[in-house]
């Protein structure tokens, strides 16, 4: 029947990368998944997969998030995955860069959690999983100033929700990947002045000799979404191949 049989799951950033892999993995385990993204064309690629319903949603827009929440009588698991990676130090980060990153990486999780949490509280059962990063309060990373700041905030948000609602049956955890081989990463590499050297630089910091795959992160997400992790809350789950060591 699957490890997630019958669970209702809502997730963001499902069009590609970790979000896509998580949506597919959860559906394979028997969940009913609402997969959202702002990229409608890429999102359509999930149409037809049993257990997945797609919907174009901008999770930085309060009205769209609230409308999405109203479509669900209840939700067992909320995956907040949407994110943006800004490259540069604090001196390379303009106010618009700062605001955009915080809006996508942190405010979207605030909006989604605030919209769906009351439904979970009504059932005295719920599970929120936020996508953070090793580049955060866990590890200082070169040229990731605002990104790391935003992901440290995600860890703080995760612990806050977990602490506030643990006695009402709510769990909240975050996933902290290292370098994951996704279309987003490949696009950032190609955008560099010397893509070949940029790729070598990314590979040089991989102590295992390879990058993580989106599917490997999705396996961890399935565990956190399942009842197997029922006693796990308020924690950072690192999947980085030892990069932080």
Automatic annotation (TrEMBL):
Q: One cellular component GO annotation, for this chain's record?
A: cytoplasm
- GO MF: 3-hydroxybutyrate dehydrogenase activity; 4-oxoproline reductase activity
Q: What is its main location?
A: cytoplasm
- Domain of life according to the entry: Eukaryota
**CDD domains hit by this protein:** DHRS6_like_SDR_c (cd05368)
**Protein localization:** Cytoplasm
Judged by the first EC level, this protein's enzyme class is: oxidoreductase
One Pfam family cited in the UniProt record for this chain: adh_short_C2
- Note the Gene3D superfamilies from the entry: NAD(P)-binding Rossmann-like Domain
| The enzyme's E.C. designation | 1.1.1.104, 1.1.1.30
Catalytic activity annotation: (R)-3-hydroxybutanoate + NAD(+) = acetoacetate + NADH + H(+)
Looking up PROSITE patterns in the UniProt record yields: ADH_SHORT
Q: What Gene Ontology biological process does one annotation of this record name? A: lipid metabolic process
Write out the entry's keywords from A to Z.
Answer: Cytoplasm, Lipid metabolism, NAD, Oxidoreductase
Please state the pathway this protein functions in, per its UniProt record. Amino-acid metabolism; Siderophore biosynthesis
Q: Which family does it belong to?
A: Belongs to the short-chain dehydrogenases/reductases (SDR) family.
Per UniProt, subunit arrangement is: Homotetramer.
**Would you tell me the protein name for this molecule?**
Dehydrogenase/reductase SDR family member 6
Origin organism is Oreochromis niloticus (Nile tilapia)
